Amino acid sequence: MKRKIVKTADGSTTIQLIDWDEQYHSLHGAVNEAYHVFIQTGLHYYLDKNKVGTLSILEIGFGTGLNAFITALEAKKCSIEIQYTGVEAYPVQLNEALAMNYVAQIDGAAECLFSDLHTTSWEERHKISDHLTLLKRKIFFSEIASNNEFDIIYFDAFGARVQPELWTVEIFKKMFNALRSNGILVTYSAKGSVRRAMQEVGFIVERLPGPPGKREMLRATKR
Fold this sequence. Notes:
Blueprint: E1 3-7, E2 13-17, E3 22-23, H1 30-49, E4 54-60, H2 66-78, E5 81-87, H3 94-98, H4 102-106, H5 111-119, E6 125-127, E7 132-137, E8 150-155, H6 169-178, E9 179-187, H7 192-200, E10 204-209, E11 216-221
Parallel strand pairs: 4-5, 4-8, 5-7, 8-9
Antiparallel strand pairs: 1-2, 2-3, 6-7, 9-11, 10-11
Helix pairs in contact: 1-2, 6-7
């Protein structure tokens, strides 16, 4: 599939899949979207509700490593330890990942951190920093079989327009099972069919203000 690196509205880059007319991040701002959906509405919200020093995060769609990168930086700021698992069936090529401008956009001193996210081996857990360990898994989302393992899920799959099979009751049942009690799932999507699929498996779902370019997003809680 043809791909190219494009700049988004906040100056940060993403990868565009030309045949699908789909991007790894919002064209309205890759970094802004990541911080809004996954850090502010996900990580910070969870930490406000649960005064913990350690937690476990599952990312559905490791992609360019942007979400893992900003999570590692936030873990240091918050003085917490995070066990991070990123799932990606088709990993981004190393040269593409390292061509992203996130280090320059976010923290120029964190170049080694961003590089380590991509150069460490798959299927093994690595200590990326004092505040984050990383396990990258090259599997399909449908192969996830975790139970009561994660506190937060970053659900960052390609959109339902191009991959509807990733936004089904079956997939969200796996996500529900993977979360611990009071765990949360956050995603940029606000489609009615997605919300109903989440509710069908037992999630309590909130519609929340979305990132730039999107009116709403969803946060789902396992009670």
